[in-house]
Structure formats: structure tokens, C-alpha cells
Predict the 3D structure of the following.
Amino acid sequence: MTPDPFQHHPELRALIHDPLESYFRTFEPSEFDEVMKANNIPPDWRQPDAQREALRCQLLEGRRDEDLWIFAYGSLMWDPAIRFSEVRRAHAPNHVRRFILKDNFGARGSPGRPGVMAALDEGEGCDGLIFRIPKEIIEEETIILWKRERIGPAYIETAIPVETDIGTLEAVTFVANHEADNIHPDLCWEDQVQCCATGVGRRGSSFDYVANLAGHFTAMGIDDPDVSALLSAAQAYRDGLAAE
């Protein structure tokens, strides 16, 4: 590993959680089973362990002989939970960050107070981070990553080109699955704002999720009008509720 994973972006040192202290290091998808049962959500809500592992192995085929890059565009940016030797700013030219994951499963929302989170969709471009996993620890770290990102059908693992200051690289990421029940490609602006302002679950609030994104972009000098607009509108919505 490099002596300092933050050598290219020292401003991110205080913004990215220590992977070894992350909740997701020891997370098991089955931990949510009782929560889902209590909310009358069918038991097939999550990906079977064997199927998830098969999907992981399928994507990694031919990619285990060198370091692996992971493209982060949402909570992975501040809580990657994977050990990495390097983090760099990156741009995915053929994808866009969209707030179309409506969460009522308990992470940052609930059936009574659904939240909203980002998904990567086809579009005109998305700024984010890439984390470099050394080839020696790819197996362990990707198992952890897949348990988190592939807990259900909302995302599909894929490899995409990303642009960086050292050229175009291939990075693994998780894109929106339009067939999933909690992906809403046509989620209107008003619903995005309300879900962001009021959604709360076991992993915190949707508002804090978007605020964390905005904080990263400020630190990195990235102007993301969509994130800024959603955060501002959600704050105004919260202020309105407090004034009632």
C-alpha cells in the first residue's frame, strides 16, 4: 500500500471514516430480516447469499490479478468500509447521480417516513471518488462491499470508464436497477425534497446523507447543482415544518 492513501487529496482525510471502524465491516444482510418482517415486507426482499456471491465472482473474473478501483458517488464517498491504498477524484462521463432510490426499508427511511438516496444512472456525467483496493485484499474487501451494495436488487454491479488526472481508468460501481421496486426513475422533485427532509432510518436521516455529499463537494471544489438544490429545498421544507 502507499504510505498515505490521501496523498492526492489531503482535504478528504477528515471526511472519510476509518474503514476498520465502519459499521459495514461486520455487517450481515440477515441483520435486517426481523425489521423487514415487522414491517410486513416479504422475506425475498434481499439477495440470497449464494446469488450475491455468484454475482461478485462473475464481475471479478479476470480482474483479480491487479489492483481494483471502486467508483463512489454516494455514501461510499465518506464511509467506504473497504481498506484502500489510494483515493482520487474521478468523473464518470456516461452516468449521472440521481436521487431515485426511495428507501422505506429502514436504512435512511421507513414505511411511514420514506427517505431518498442516490443511484447511478445513465446520463451526462457524475463526479465522485475512486478507491484503489490492492490486489492482495480484493477478495476480503469486495465481499464486504457486495454485502452492503447488493443486499437487495436496487443496484447492479458493473465496470465503467472513469476520467482521472492520470487518465481513463476502469472502475467497479453499482448502477440503478430500474426493475427494482425501490428504484423510481420518475420520482418527482417534490417527493425527492419531502423524502430528503423527513426520511429517517437505522442508518440516519436522508437529510444528513445529502448534507454529507454536499460537504465532500465543497471540500473538493466540485459544483454539483443537483445536490445543492436538493439540500437547500429540503432545509426549507424542514424549516417550514418547524414553524408550524
Summary: The mean pLDDT is 92.
